[in-house]
Design goal:
The protein has a domain of about 55 residues. The protein has about 170 residues and is mainly alpha-helical. The longest helix is centred in the middle third of the chain and has 88 residues. The protein is built from 5 helices and no strands.
Length: about 170
C-alpha cells in the first residue's frame, strides 16, 4: 500500500521545523498503526514480568535479599571509611596550605629585604665607580702636569752628578 501527502506547505513545515524528523516519524507510525503494536508489546512485557514475579520462590528471594543487604552494609562501611580518609586528607591539605602561605610570606619578606640590600649595594657600587673615575682623572692630570718635571728632575739630578764627577777629573 502506498501513501501520498498532497499538502506541500504542511510537508515544508514538517521538514523545516526543529523537531521535523520526530513529527514525520510519529505521523507515519500513526498512519500505519505501529503505535498500537508498540503499546501491545509493552503491555505484553509488563504481563510477563508480573507472571514471573508470581512464580519466583519466596525463600530463595529472601536469601538473595539478605545477601544483597549484607553487601550493602559492607559497602556502606567502606564508604564511611573512605569518607573518614577524605576528611583526614582535607585536614592535612588545609595544614599544608597554611604552611605554604607562611613560607611564601617569609620568602616575600626575605626577597624584599634582599632586593633593598641589592639596590643599596648597586648604589654604593655606582658611587665607588664614580669616585674611582674621579681619582683616575686626577692621576691623569697629575701625570700630565707633574710627571714630565719629575722625570726631568731625575735626569737633571743625574746630569748634575755626572757634571760634578767630570769636573773633578778635569
Amino acid at each position: 500500500m502506498e501513501y501520498f501527502f498532497f499538502d506541500g506547505e504542511r510537508i515544508k513545515d514538517l521538514a523545516v521545523g526543529d523537531n521535523a524528523e520526530q513529527v514525520v516519524r510519529e505521523a507515519i507510525r500513526d498512519l500505519i498503526g505501529l503505535n498500537l503494536y508498540e503499546t501491545l508489546g509493552s503491555d505484553m512485557d509488563s504481563l510477563v514480568k508480573k507472571i514471573r514475579r508470581r512464580n519466583i520462590d519466596i525463600p530463595e528471594m529472601q536469601k538473595k535479599i539478605e545477601e544483597k543487604e549484607g553487601e550493602i552494609s559492607l559497602i556502606k562501611k567502606k564508604i564511611r571509611n573512605i569518607n573518614t580518609q577524605i576528611n583526614e586528607k582535607k585536614h592535612g591539605l588545609t595544614e599544608l596550605k597554611e604552611k605554604k602561605e607562611i613560607i611564601e610570606n617569609k620568602l616575600k619578606r626575605k626577597a624584599g629585604r634582599i632586593a633593598i640590600e641589592k639596590r643599596e649595594k648597586e648604589k654604593n657600587l655606582l658611587e665607588l665607580n664614580e669616585e674611582l673615575k674621579e681619582l683616575n682623572d686626577e692621576i691623569r692630570r697629575i701625570c700630565d702636569d707633574v710627571l714630565p718635571f719629575l722625570i726631568a728632575s731625575d735626569v737633571c739630578e743625574n746630569l748634575l752628578k755626572q757634571l760634578k764627577k767630570e769636573k773633578r777629573y778635569c
